[in-house]
Specification:
The structure holds two protein chains of two kinds. Chain A contains 19 helices and nine strands. Chain A is α+β, with helices and mostly antiparallel strands. The radius of gyration of chain A is 23 Å and the shape is globular.
Chain lengths: 435, 189
């Protein structure tokens, strides 16, 4: 007699776990999903005031423009207008060789720069079928998590600032400064590092980094306690965030929300755990999920993620401390620049160096879509190569663009003052939105 | 799921660990609806690729600046990154039509499934909008309309997303000139 193998508990349950919705039915505007229309009976009256919010308003996190219809203080109509920061990155990248392109993605999402750089580099490596050394993988994981903390700190500082908690801004930017100092130590640049190279890292990890980074890992939990003490029992903060800008799980999925916005709506989904890349399948971390779908839960998800990211950084650091002297970049001379000292003694190295720098390396023909969990959610990179030294087509799935699509749904029963809280909580970076 | 059950199924291919299912242009909404009901509840992205000039000799990135200095239309600036024509081991495989339109879908399951639904279209051939299937398609389709000039039938609000409303042309097309805007100098008038 044969017995069917028992299914593991993990595969038995529905995936992702979806928590009960905060409201019944769908609130996505029926005509256009991203435009909240003024109800016909209200539009017939003379009482609707249309105001133009942005694009140059400090609390739009860049250049977002919102055309808002107000009935008193109640928002009854809303239309988000974007494109003020469109710079044609995708078109520009088609004119550059693959290895020059690496500088562009981090300028697209300029707050989650390291993750943006990662998704492009991972996509090129996948087309090339290139193996990356273990040390580079761990260092990439570490830097991406530092970058996630950095991004959430910018979110927390600016969102709290907009709701009146000015001191939060200074506290958050104090820790952000430490992270930027770490970046400067490793890469020479505070932001837009261009440290990830196709094949690994551009340089070895400098001496003294581990000690400095350890100091940060030890300090960060205390800083998080500070933030919680300042905000989490602050009556004004709670009044302004709880029950505001609600988005249910079903609506969030239908609107393509991802990352912290999705997890705050009660969907247990994180690409780092569910579709692991880098070294995420070898580190221990928890995925915070909250079910309320409001501004407060989005803030709580990011707070918890900062704590988890700190734990991941700690685990990466433990691994990296034992990897001194190991290679940090692949040894494929057709793609990776040869070591500098070889150029004086080896003719082949000089030729390879010259070819890569002038013409660029060639990437096999094909199309590819790679997605990672950036601080803002699913950040995807779609590449088409014709086998030449330049990409034929580059496209980024921008989580910020998708996040702003939810503005109309979140604002469906909000007051004008809540708009600031809602837009802040969706955490869109306009560079990422407009590209 | 067997991909052949999708309405308008043409072919399926695997490359780089990814599945691409080609769908007839006219039936893309039906196929998307079927895929969504089959678990692909999450539309990650919609992206168009312009294959004009694909595989032509000497073209590695784009065409459009070739007419500089010939007086044939706008353009400007010299191409400092002229594609090299040598070293191609093989010319890339020809494409059926000018544009490919790809829908990147994700099924939130354990393990997750991803698929790319793809249809091919020529200039001026419209596609059905999938806003009614996934509301998130709204801005994705507007972006593709704006930058690539793909027309989506049934989209409730098909206007430009990123470029100004009065912009002419679709910048991500390969025949859209690069090299900057023409500058008018006062002494040239």
């Amino acid at each position: 007699m044969t017995v069917a193998p028992e299914k593991s508990a993990r595969s038995m349950r529905d995936w992702p776990i979806v928590f009960p919705p905060p409201y019944e039915g769908s609130r996505i505007p029926p005509r256009v999903p991203t435009i909240l229309d003024v109800p016909a009976d209200l539009a017939a009256t003379d009482d609707i005031l249309q105001i133009n919010f942005g694009p140059n308003h400090p609390s739009t996190h860049g250049v977002l423009r919102l055309i808002v219809d107000l009935d008193g203080e109640q928002v009854v109509g809303l239309n988000a207008v974007i494109g003020y920061l469109h710079t044609g990155f995708e078109k520009t990248m088609e004119q550059k060789t693959w290895w020059k392109c690496v500088t562009y993605p981090e300028r697209i999402d300029y707050v989650g720069y390291q993750n943006a750089e990662l998704v492009f580099v991972l996509a090129v490596e996948k087309l090339l079928s290139l193996e990356v050394p273990e040390k580079a993988t761990w260092m990439r994981t570490l830097l991406c998590e530092l970058n996630r903390i950095h991004s959430h700190l910018v979110f927390l500082g600016t969102s709290a600032l907009e709701l009146g908690a000015i001191s939060m801004f200074w506290y958050c930017f104090r820790e952000r400064e430490t992270i930027l100092d770490l970046y400067e130590m490793v890469t020479g640049a505070r932001m837009h590092t261009r440290y990830f190279q196709v094949g690994g890292l551009a340089e070895d990890i400098p001496d003294g980094f581990h000690a400095e980074c350890r100091k940060f890992v030890e300090w960060m939990p205390h800083a998080l306690d500070d933030y919680l003490a300042l905000l989490d029992r602050n009556a004004i903060w709670l009044e302004r965030t709880k029950g505001v800008g609600v988005l249910s799980a079903q609506d969030a999925i239908a609107l393509g929300q991802s990352g912290p916005n999705l997890r705050a709506s009660g969907v247990d989904w994180d690409l780092r755990r569910d579709q692991p890349y880098l070294a995420y399948d070898q580190v221990d971390f928890r995925v915070p999920v909250y079910a309320g779908g409001d501004v407060y839960d989005r803030y709580r998800v990011r707070m918890d993620e900062m704590a988890e990211s700190t734990r991941i950084v700690d685990q990466c650091l433990r691994r990296l401390e034992r990897m001194d002297g190991r290679p940090w970049i692949a040894d494929d001379r057709k793609v990776v620049l040869p070591p500098r000292e070889e150029l004086h003694t080896s003719m082949e190295s000089l030729i390879h160096h010259f070819k890569i720098v002038t013409e660029g390396f060639r990437v096999p023909e094909g199309e590819i879509y790679v997605a990672i969990e950036s601080p803002r959610g699913e950040s995807g990179c779609y590449l088409v190569s014709d086998g030449g030294p330049k990409p034929w087509r580059v496209h980024f799935r921008a989580p910020s663009l998708v996040a702003l699509e939810a503005t109309a749904t979140c604002m469906s029963d909000a007051l004008v003052a809540d708009m600031i809280a809602v837009v802040g909580s969706l955490d869109a970076v306009m560079g990422d939105t407009d590209r | 799921m067997s991909w052949a059950v999708l309405p308008g199924f043409v072919s399926v291919r695997e490359a780089f660990g990814e599945t691409t299912v080609t769908i007839e242009r006219e039936r893309i909404r039906d196929a998307c609806t079927r895929a969504r009901d089959d678990g692909f509840t999450f539309l990650a992205d919609i992206v168009t690729t312009d294959y004009l000039g694909w595989g032509d000799k000497g073209v590695s990135g784009y065409i459009g600046t070739g007419n500089i200095g010939t007086g044939l239309g706008i353009g400007g600036g010299r191409d400092l990154h002229q594609p090299s024509t040598q070293g191609y081991q093989a010319l890339p495989a020809p494409k059926p039509k000018r544009f490919s339109l790809s829908y990147h879908l994700l099924a939130m399951e354990q393990p997750p499934r991803r698929v790319r639904l793809q249809c091919w279209l020529d200039e001026d051939e419209p596609v059905q909008s999938v806003v009614s299937v996934w509301p998130t398609a709204d801005w994705h389709e507007r972006e593709q309309f704006d930058l690539m000039g793909v027309r989506f039938d049934g989209h409730p609000n098909l206007v430009r997303l990123l470029m100004p409303d009065d912009w002419e042309g679709h910048p991500l097309r390969k025949d859209y000139p690069i090299g900057g805007e023409p500058v008018r100098f006062s002494d040239a008038e």
